Amino acid sequence: MVDLRSQYEKIKDEVNAGIQEVIDTTTFIKGGKVNDFQRNLESYLNVKHVIPVGNGTDALQIALMALGLKPGDEVITPTFTFIATAEVVALLGLTPVLVDVDFDTFNISVESVKKAITPKTKAIVPVHLFGQNADMEAILTLAKEHNLYVIEDACQSISSVYTFSDGSKVQSGCMGDIGCTSFFPSKNLGCFGDGGAIFTNNDELAVKMRAISNHGMVVRYHHDLVGVNSRLDSVQAAVLEVKLKHLDEYNTARNSTADFYDKVFFKIDKLIIPARSTKSTHVFHQYTLKLNGVNRSELQKYLTDKGIPAMIYYPVPLHLQKAYQDPRYQAGDFPVAEKLCECVLSLPMHTELSEEQLEYITKNVLEFIE
């Protein structure tokens, strides 16, 4: 699904030099490359504060911890997403309130959010799934009406840009109170291990989240808050500093690949290509088809046998996961998410796909369904 080796070969000298600098200076935790990357990412995103942390899940947890929520407070998030979003809510003793998604964009349904708001609701966590932003203007309007926090899960959408009705453009993760992202190796901006970051324009929240990520310390050995230990290490920051310089070209390559797939599959009734929002650019973390009258497991096996990986993101919605069974939710409660879990299939999507490879992938998909 990704070709990190080929990507690395193109930037090998830059990456190796950055890692060697970390080794030479022996600044392995904080300072040095971490500070450099933080400043560069703040500039790229046009956001006041970037707090580098250990991974995307930690980013979400620290963001929630900073809001001072209490056990039983409700946090709304989509049921069609990776488990981390609900996981951190549950770990903190908060109540995850799951809602359905939009069939076309895969993103959280604003209408479902409206129906789910109660007096106990304190926050909304929209997930910008597969590389494009949810309808943030509508979500922010709802949040303002009900005095709710908005924490954006931008783990798959970094550098996607949302356009508001007044024409203003804002980077993914920088619209709500807090944004979170992951630098897992397969992400559009990925390191060589685990990594993540939190974004905010709120000075007070930034101070809190920096402290929480470092054992609750503002002044060394003075612990004002209950915190965690979550830091982006300098080797990963060195890799990310290099990759950030290439992120725009990576996005262009991903969009070119998506365009290729679109042109081949556009008029095929059995394949529904990904919808592109009119309000958001798409950075195609995944290229996800919806199958119509196609045996997904057989197609997946056929492609695998041909040496073509194809993945299901995601096979089970959160409300039907064993760990998150809840009497509030039953099968059938979220029909769109449940339908998507039955019909989605993601094709290879990365920066190093050649036209020859794309022709081979699409030829084999068409051969199976025709």
Unreliable residue stretches: none
Return the CATH class of the largest domain: Alpha Beta
Order of helices and strands: HHEHEHEHEHEEEEEHEEHHEEHHEH
Overall domain count: 2
CATH third-level topology of the largest domain: Aspartate Aminotransferase, domain 2
Class by SSE composition: alpha/beta
Radius of gyration: 21 Å
Distance between the termini: 24 Å
Average pLDDT metric: 97
Total number of beta strands: 14
Strand content: 15-25%
> How many H/I helical runs?
12
Net shape: globular
The description of the largest β-sheet is:
7 strands, mixed
Please list the strands of the largest sheet in the order they lie side by side.
Answer: 1-9-8-5-4-2-3
**Helix coverage percent:** 40-55%
CATH superfamily of the largest domain: Type I PLP-dependent aspartate aminotransferase-like (Major domain)
Q: Which CATH architecture of the largest domain is right?
A: 3-Layer(aba) Sandwich
Concise overview:
With 370 residues, the chain is of the alpha/beta class. It has 12 helices and 14 strands.
Topology:
Layout: H1 4-25, H2 32-45, E1 49-53, H3 56-66, E2 74-78, H4 84-91, E3 95-99, H5 110-116, E4 121-124, H6 136-146, E5 149-153, E6 161-163, E7 169-171, E8 178-182, E9 196-200, H7 203-213, E10 217-219, E11 222-223, H8 234-245, H9 247-265, E12 271-272, E13 287-291, H10 296-305, H11 335-343, E14 344-347, H12 355-369
Parallel strand pairs: 2-3, 2-4, 4-5, 5-8
Antiparallel strand pairs: 1-9, 6-7, 8-9, 10-11, 12-13, 13-14
Helix pairs in contact: 1-8, 2-8, 3-4, 3-7, 9-12
